[in-house]
Design goal:
heterodimer; A: mainly alpha; 13 helices; B: 9 helices; about 35% helix
Chain lengths: ~325, ~250
């Protein structure tokens, strides 16, 4: 049976084991900073798992996923602000700090916003799709910048991290475990989609959309569904990210963020189940290790990215596993 | 006589000054192979695109199973029962031969929005798909990615995908292209039996195959059908001989 397990699976298992073990050890050693670092990895990985559905499986290079990441963040921020002030939300909803409610609202909102954005953007392809998704995200970015009610350009602080029944989310380890659980759920969702009939149609639309149409499946509907699901997962990660930093600002909506999510996927290996996790680990550790030495750490990240794109199209996972994904 | 399966009336399409399709009418009847032949540049590809829905004609109607196809895109026409193969093989290159056919099976079942049940090992997909590969003699290559198949094998796979759709009519665009004499002969034998499952509109340059298979032949020259008839009628038609067949007949 051992031979049936691929090297990619082994490497992924090691990555997951590291992600779980390091925060536990750090908590035992009284070093909460490393727990926060691991939480950041888990959340960015979840955001990238979302984008990986559209980009990796569907070949849809969305340069606007920061819109969903940021919207999720603002949902967490706005709920916290209203709950703190005791003011009701628009449409008379009572504000709550309960994370499950916030998550559901973030997911639903991102799905609703992604539907028209996707329906319009998916009428185009290639570089036009990249540009139009960017344009939509920038519209939302400038809206957030110019809307003073929730901090405008300065952003919005979350004074007390939102709550989860039965857990003390203010503590680093419980919050990490929550994020880890949601990352696991996101990975299971990606895995299910990848293996399903929908996933087969989605991957076929990436490889050859004409072929898909010629068996009677309209590529547009498949792509739109993938885009919406993708946005919902990334939006959930955004809500977690805001609660991690206890702060949300328009920078979460900016095109830098969209680019960062794409970089995570390319670094880790696009279309691969654990690619986003590998990418997020490399990215965050790089930021931490080199960021302490030089402010210009992104220059070196750029060099690595160049190397990956030129010599290791499968990303780090592909490089380490050394085998084509499809056989 | 019952209404034809596929009926084109007075189809016209111009690109600038070029009349690519100049008032084409033709039909495809139950149980027949209707071959469409013509020299390069006669407008065969443009006509196929219009039948399949990837180009919209300027005027004229295309009826399939009695229904006007205007406004339906390629996928919708396929769902109505129009199964096609491409002149240049068009497959999902990363998918194995089997998965390419499984895609057609799931499309026919109308179940492409199922998100959870894995397709690998789903007998309702793999069973029919494998049966189609066996019909075209590709079962030993089921696990091979389409990109790694030989040219001839890709042509076979195209046919297997079209079969899996269980269409009401086939539209084969030069299925013999590049097959070599042996492959052409095998495919000719296969298509010969297939006409009883669904009629075939066959665009083909291989005249041996056309003369062996066709119940009727239409000759397209400069966007116009200059003759339609049985093999014997077409072979003896002086205008066809001058325009196209030359010494081959």
């Amino acid at each position: 049976m051992m031979a049936g397990v691929s090297r990619e699976t082994w490497i992924s298992a090691v990555l997951v084991a590291l992600l779980v073990a390091v925060p536990l050890a750090a908590t035992a050693a009284g070093e909460p900073f490393y727990v926060t670092l691991a939480t950041r990895i888990a959340i960015l990985a979840l955001a990238a798992v979302g984008l990986n559905i559209a980009l990796g499986l569907g070949g849809l290079v969305s340069f606007g996923h920061a819109a969903f990441f940021g919207l999720g963040g603002y949902v967490a921020g706005i709920f916290a602000a209203h709950a703190f002030n005791g003011a009701p939300l628009p449409f008379g909803f009572a504000a709550t700090t309960a994370m499950p409610v916030i998550w559901l609202v973030a997911i639903a909102l991102c799905g609703l916003v992604a539907l028209p954005i996707g329906a319009i953007s998916l009428r185009t392809a290639g570089v036009y799709f990249i540009m139009i998704t960017l344009a939509f995200a920038q519209m939302i970015y400038y809206f957030a910048v110019s809307w003073p009610d929730y901090g405008g350009e300065d952003g919005l602080s979350i004074y007390v991290r939102n709550s989860f029944p039965g857990l003390n989310t203010a503590q680093p380890l419980p919050y990490f475990l929550l994020c880890l659980g949601l990352l696991a759920a996101g990975l299971v969702l990606f895995w299910c989609i990848q293996g399903s009939r929908f996933g087969a149609a989605l991957e076929a639309s990436r490889q050859n959309a004409t072929r898909l149409a010629a068996v009677g499946i309209t590529p547009f509907g498949i792509r739109l569904a993938a885009f919406v699901i993708s946005a919902m997962v990334t939006g959930l990660a955004g809500a977690l990210f805001a609660d991690l930093n206890r702060f949300v600002s328009p920078s979460m909506l900016s095109w830098h963020m969209s680019g960062e999510l794409i970089v995570l996927i390319i670094l880790g290996g696009k279309g691969r189940l654990f690619g986003p996790l590998a990418g997020a680990m490399v990215y965050v550790l790089f930021e931490y290790a080199l960021g302490g030495i030089t402010e210009r750490w992104q220059f070196f990240l750029g060099l690595i990215l160049l190397g990956v794109v030129l010599f290791a199209r499968g990303g780090f996972l592909g490089l380490l596993a050394g085998k084509a994904r499809h056989g | 006589m019952a209404e034809p399966i596929l009926q084109l009336s007075e189809i016209r399409k111009t690109f600038g000054a070029l009349k690519a399709t100049d008032g084409v009418s033709l039909d495809l009847r139950k149980g027949e192979i209707h071959a469409l032949i013509g020299p390069n540049g006669a407008g065969k590809s443009t006509l196929i695109h219009q039948i399949c829905g990837s180009i919209r004609p300027d005027s004229g109607t295309i009826r399939f199973l009695g229904e006007d196809m205007a406004g339906l895109d390629m996928a919708a026409r396929v769902r109505k029962g129009l199964g096609r193969s491409f002149q240049i093989s068009s497959l999902a290159p990363e998918f194995s031969a089997l998965r390419n056919v499984m895609l057609a099976v799931q499309a026919r079942q109308g179940s492409s929005y199922r998100f959870f049940r894995p397709v690998a090992g789903d007998r309702s997909l793999t069973g029919p798909a494998m049966a189609m590969l066996e019909r075209v003699g590709l079962e030993k290559r089921a696990k091979v990615p389409a990109a790694e198949l030989s040219h001839g094998e890709r042509r076979q796979l195209e046919i297997a995908i079209a079969l899996a759709l269980e269409p009401k009519a086939f539209l084969f665009d030069e299925p013999m292209a590049g097959l070599g004499p042996e492959g052409s002969k095998r495919l000719t034998g296969f298509l010969d039996g297939l006409r009883h499952e669904a009629p075939i509109l066959l665009v083909e340059h291989d005249m041996d195959a056309v003369f062996a298979l066709a119940d009727r032949i239409s000759v397209l020259v400069y966007g116009r059908i200059i003759a339609t008839g049985t093999v014997a009628e077409i072979r003896s038609d002086p205008e066809v001989r001058r325009a196209y067949l030359g010494d081959a007949a």
